[in-house]
Design a protein that fits this description.
Blueprint (H helix, E strand, L loop, with lengths): L8 H12 L21 H4 L26 H5 L6 E7 L2 H11 L7 H8 L9 E4 L4 H7 L3 H13 L8 E3 L11 H7 L4 E3 L7 E9 L3 H12 L4 E9 L4
Parallel strand pairs: 1-6, 2-5, 5-6
Antiparallel strand pairs: 3-4
Length: about 240
């Protein structure tokens, strides 16, 4: 009878790595060639570039026009935050990476994605706060993606991170598919500050800013808690004008 051969230690390690780090890039289906931002390949990751085009000077909504200015929404209804600073446009590989991070639950991507945000020209801050998740969403996902990004931002800026600086009081409908007006109504009263921020300059971290409804709702509560200036730091900005 033929003796069964035991797998070598090398093959076992390879099998474990294949499980932990899928070998196919979700953007181009090429074989993954790194561990830093696996499962994305080096070529696709290099396509994640900062947005250099025109955008609203307050909410960072990208403009189709060549010249930057202030969008009509910010003129008509000034937000409670001073500015949104985002890394890139929610599109292509960056959108795929955020989707893999949040919805495929590839938690380790927070480090390379957070490193991109650390390159932003962020102002000095007294503290860093993240957009919170509801308790049910946190249980389902297993982590708050904005809080993980905020952890990287806090380390890069050497500002203290307040994990419970903002709390979400209950469940709301998913924002996906809602209009800007519906998003604002959906989030009314959804957040509360977890402490006083009297006289403090804050960085509010979110993964994606779409209509700005979440940033507005969170910044409003931080302002009510005494924050004197709130700058939103986002990984990506969606939408164009």
């Amino acid at each position: 009878m033929r003796e069964m051969r035991r797998p070598s230690a090398g093959r076992l390690i390879t099998g474990i790595l294949e499980t932990l780090y899928p070998s196919v890039c979700p953007s181009c289906s090429a074989r993954t060639d790194n561990l830093l931002y696996s499962p994305f390949c080096r070529n696709c990751w290099s396509m994640i570039i900062p947005h250099r085009g025109a955008s609203c000077r307050i909410c960072a909504t990208p403009f189709n026009a060549a010249a930057a200015g202030i969008c009509g929404s910010c003129i008509k209804d000034p937000p409670p935050f001073s500015q949104v600073i985002s890394y890139g446009i929610y599109d292509s590989v960056l959108a795929a990476a955020i989707h893999a991070f949040k919805f495929r639950k590839i938690r380790r991507l927070y480090k390379p994605l957070g490193s991109l945000m650390a390159e932003l020209p962020l102002p000095p801050a007294d503290a860093v706060v993240a957009v919170p998740l509801s308790a049910a969403c946190l249980r389902e996902r297993g982590f708050n993606q904005s809080l993980l990004l905020a952890k990287t931002i806090a380390a890069a800026t050497r500002a203290p991170l307040f994990p419970d600086g903002l709390l979400k009081k209950g469940e709301t409908l998913p924002q996906i598919g809602l209009t800007a007006k519906e998003r604002s109504a959906n989030l009314r009263g959804a957040f509360t500050a977890g402490r006083s921020f009297r006289g403090m300059n804050l960085l509010l971290v979110d993964d994606v800013v779409t209509t700005g409804a979440t940033a507005r709702a969170c910044a409003q509560e931080l302002a009510r808690a005494g924050a004197s200036r709130i700058v939103v730091a986002a990984l990506a900005r969606a939408g164009t004008l």
